[in-house]
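Typical record is below.
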Amino acid sequence: MPRSFSFFLLSFLLLFPQTSWANLRVVTDITPIYGLVAQVMKGVGTPSVIIRAGSDPHHYQLRPSEAANIEQADIIFWIGPELTPWLQPAFDNLAADAKIISLMKIDGLTRLAAGADSHVHHHEDNHDHEDKQNHEDKHDHDGKNEAGHHNEAGHENSGIDPHLWLDPENARIWLQEIARTLSLYDPENAEIYRENARAADHKIAGLQRRIARIMATSRLMPVFAQHAAFAYFENRFGLEIAGTLYDRENEAPSPGHIAELHQLTRNLPKACLLAETHLENNVIASVFSKTDLLVMALNPSGSANSPPLTAYSDLMERLANGLEKCSTP
């Protein structure tokens, strides 16, 4: 074999890994992202998820088996350090050879400022979802790692709300990036990934239309949430969360916040509450003592003990069903 051709072949293999799909190990951070990746990989393989479903992604202790999955990963899809800053050191120490995709960095997403008015777009590019398969973002995806190795002070406090997956438009953009990345590492199954991404996109688009119809034709009771995690969903569909039960993450509500909630619910006959985890009954009894309250178990980070392959669309289905239940005659 000519020396020049051998050099070309070696360079090509280094730039475009030809990992067999049977050995391609894909890891995700949270259940909704697992659901998106699992849909794209359907019929080829199944990803693993780091954070157990129903757990709080903001504060989590890795199990040895989860650390092992990170260490063995070929590709990792995660939201980014804005959601799980504690994962960054684990990736730095355990996943030096993995392709790490920080989904918050993908072009074209709707991004909202943390704590900002949920009905104002922080940033959004227009995309034609029929042409999403040709989407190529402007980041350099041929490098091994996109996440980490920046170490800016306070990168987990970038000012962007990290719950981007609650806007289905963002999820649809991610489907194309997931398919593109998997196709790069597993070109033999590229068409399967593209077809799966198209099918998942079609499913999410249908759920978007259903939710939009509910919002357009229903009169909702006031909707409360456990904490401020639904800004992207509010922004996309025009929902207004009347208030949040907790004013600080993983802490009991302050007396001042309880007083504010009493003001909101004082003359409220009916309301809905999106409950992510177990709530203290005395807090609910105090705040909604004179309100007929409908409590719906809905964790935006995933609530199933064993996440299904349809975890993302299931989340949107639960949100749609919850809105229907919160509708008044």
User: Anything to note?
Assistant: The first strand starts at residue 26 and ends at 28.
